[in-house]
Amino acid sequence: MIKLIYLDEEQGWHSTVHEALADKFDLDIPESLPHNIEDIWPLVKESQIVIADYRLNGDGILPYTGDDAAKVIHKHNKHLPIFIITSFEDNAIQECTETQIIRGKEMFTSPALLNKLCLMIKAAVNRYNSKKESNEACLKAMLEKIKAGKNLSLSEETERFNAELYLSELDLDSSLQANLMT
């Protein structure tokens, strides 16, 4: 089951999102969010996807938006999928620079839109996992070739570099990645 975290400062939306997604995903909804934006990463690092409200700072308690949180998250894992789901879709579309998937909160309340949202979530996580697995397999194949005493072609060196770069951008603590890169 996909591990999803939902970030919103409005308690009312917690129950709406729980009702909409709890039976479809391994859902985590923190009761409160950290005041220090840098503390967002430990909260989300085990998730496969993040859904955040845009106006996390709407009630004046938090000093950051969902897009600000996405920037911090992407400093740790550049490719972790993040969606902004907000009541202020027009503002978010104009102001967000870190997230590409921006939708209105009716995605949680309309059955047809909820179905589309679930498909979007699954597709984003599948793309993330597929690209990770593909780069791990590429890197493993290149390293096996090197261990066998064979030289890599220029295009294979480029593939190896790109795979190492992509995997390093995930900032994962997986033993497979550590073993592949050594």
Quick description:
Helices cover about 55% and strands about 10% of the residues. By secondary structure, the protein is α/β, with parallel strands linked by helices.
Q: What proportion of the residues is helical, as a percent range?
A: 40-55%
Biggest β-sheet, characterized? 5 strands, parallel
Residues in β-strands, percent: 5-15%
Instruction: Report the count of strand segments.
Output: 5
Given as residue ranges, the uncertain stretches (5+ residues, pLDDT < 50) are 173-177
Radius of gyration: 19 Å
**Helix/sheet category:** alpha/beta
Shape: elongated
Span of the ends, CA to CA:
31 Å
Within the largest sheet, what's the order of strands? 2-1-3-4-5
SSE order in H/E notation? EHEHEHEHEHHHH
Task: Give the count of helical stretches.
Answer: 8
Mean pLDDT, to the nearest integer, reads 92
Give a description of the structure.
The model is unreliable at 173-177 (pLDDT under 50). α1 (11-21) links the parallel β1 (3-7) and β2. The two termini are 31 Å apart. α6 (111-147) crosses α7 and α6 runs parallel beside α8 (175-181). Strands 2-1-3-4-5 form a 5-stranded parallel sheet, with helices on both faces. Helix content is 54%, strand content 12%. The protein is α/β, with parallel strands linked by helices and 182 residues long.
Keywords:
single chain; 182 residues; alpha/beta; 5-stranded parallel beta sheet
Reconstruct the topology from this structure.
Elements: E1 3-7, H1 11-21, E2 26-28, H2 40-44, E3 49-52, H3 66-76, E4 82-86, H4 89-95, E5 101-104, H5 106-109, H6 111-147, H7 154-170, H8 175-181
Parallel strand pairs: 1-2, 1-3, 3-4, 4-5
